[in-house]
Amino acid sequence: MTYDIIIIGSGIAGLMAAIEAKNETNSVAIITKSNIFKSNSSVASGGINAVLDEKDEVEIQKHIDDTMKSSKDLGDKKAISYLCHQAPLIMKKLVEYGVAFDRDENGKILQRSFGGGSSKRTCFVGDSTGSAITQALIKKAKLMGVDFLVNHFVMDITKIEEYISGVVTLKKLDSTVVVYPTKAVVFAGGGYAGIYRGFSTNAQDCTGDLLSVALRAGMSLQDMEFVQFHPTGFAKTSYLVSEAARGEGGYLVNADGERFVNELGTRDVLARAIFEQMRSGKKVYLDMRHISKEILETRVPSLYKNAYNQVGIDLSTELLEIKPVAHYSMGGIASLMASSEVKGLFVCGESAALGVHGANRLGGNSLLEGAVFGELAGKKAKEYAFNKEFLPIDYNVVIKNMDLVQRIFDGDCSKNFNAMRISVGKIMFDKAGIFRNESSLQEAFDYMKYLRLESNTLHCIDKSKHNNVELISILELRNALELSEAIILSAMQRSESRGAHFREDFAFTCKEGNRHVLIKELQKGFFKVHYEEGGLTKWLKKILT
């Protein structure tokens, strides 16, 4: 089946893109590798940043300044200005689509403080903001006639020269490789923090598959070294303790009962401060005992419920042990205002490096980025596809993927791919996590290189082709290993500390580092990694014109 426009990903970015791309005459589909309700957006809890009055230039400028400051000199001023100026308009659109933001007695949307923000600008729906937004957008997309292709694992794209022509997927139901010819594609498949399995708020299948697809298509990734570690996750389960908990007045205390850090500081500062306490042998806790039970049950209901259900803690009377966990990836596919190196391929959300986060994302900006640039990507895809013809499919790519699937089914395997996946998460957290150095990064790289070779020998024990979970897990592992190498090499290239990237052997920020790191896979296992030359915007403008 053919579609004029294909969106990959069913989070806020993908849904906004699909809604904007759809009109009365074209065909638009969303492809998602599981069900439509599963995405990082749907579990994002804290809120979405926005100045509600589009004419309030003073507060909008504060939002711009806070975002630029958090980016540690790596933010793109044009993209950040666009993000913050679009925020009031996006909020109106979300309300129109049915998102029921919390309001005061006068009907005004409530806003809370968030880390790194100089004003209260984070709008919310309790502590289930992402879920409320995605559900409203799914309903809107369905009403508009967007098709949902669920349980399709994207393996590759096909191109004719530098023009997109199709999307190659694996249909989970029967393990068949299916190609969908299309005129335009939007990548909105999320980030790669799930690679840090066991030490991440992300689901284990958040392995950055589309970034691996981009590498195989000859595209560049940007800023892969910047992985944001959220300062507060459940110590036992890694469940996210939303910044809303600290925005509502929660304290961070160590085992001695001491508050040791400003709870509303930026996430990189808090994560390192907490990890330092842990390295010194002291556990760290979230303390909300001074907040009324009524506030806890109304403002952070999901946290209150899950603290009790998961670890048996009553937040109104007990301390909750927490730890930093991999949460968000600032790096992604190199792009300029949602456009990529491939003609007809647009990127948004956590898949993209759009320049709005730089070295450290400002809390509350991720849902906003997804909505704002998802909308922009959808508009651009619709404009691009208008009056375009379908291009031929490169069936060499399709056949290559069919052969790969068959090889994974053929043969026997005694290796435990699940154990390999767990070890990837541990090594990445220990050696390429909150603290890094040349030695630890080299150790991590050598281990990933070894595992990548080993992954070529993995086969399905279960030979059934009906909903084969092993097949998808093996493909995700291969992608995770490819991206792990890209993360590590990018971290080795950046010989300084900046934002979420902290090198113990280079514990300073240098002017030479005010540039993006780009990485491209020249052939399987061989990368070119370098600092941008002449400015990323200049480089991309040259490609895109």
UniProtKB/TrEMBL annotation:
Cofactor(s) needed: FAD
Gene3D superfamilies xrefs: FAD/NAD(P)-binding domain, Fumarate reductase/succinate dehydrogenase flavoprotein-like, C-terminal domain, Succinate dehydrogenase/fumarate reductase flavoprotein, catalytic domain
Keyword Cytoplasm listed: no
Domain FAD-dependent oxidoreductase 2 FAD-binding: start-end pairs: 4-367
InterPro entries recorded: FAD-dep_OxRdtase_2_FAD-bd, FAD/NAD-bd_sf, Fum_R/Succ_DH_flav-like_C_sf, Fum_Rdtase/Succ_DH_flav-like_C, SdhA/FrdA/AprA, Succ_DH/fumarate_Rdtase_cat_sf
Keywords: Flavoprotein, Oxidoreductase
GO BP, sorted A to Z: anaerobic respiration
Sample GO molecular function, one term: flavin adenine dinucleotide binding
Residue ranges constituting the Fumarate reductase/succinate dehydrogenase flavoprotein-like C-terminal domain according to the UniProt record: 424-507
One Gene Ontology term, aspect cellular component: plasma membrane
Pfam families xrefs: FAD_binding_2, Succ_DH_flav_C
Superkingdom in the source lineage: Bacteria
Catalytic machinery residues: 267
Protein name, UniProt field: Succinate dehydrogenase flavoprotein subunit-like protein
Species in which this protein is naturally found: Sulfurospirillum multivorans (strain DM 12446 / JCM 15788 / NBRC 109480)
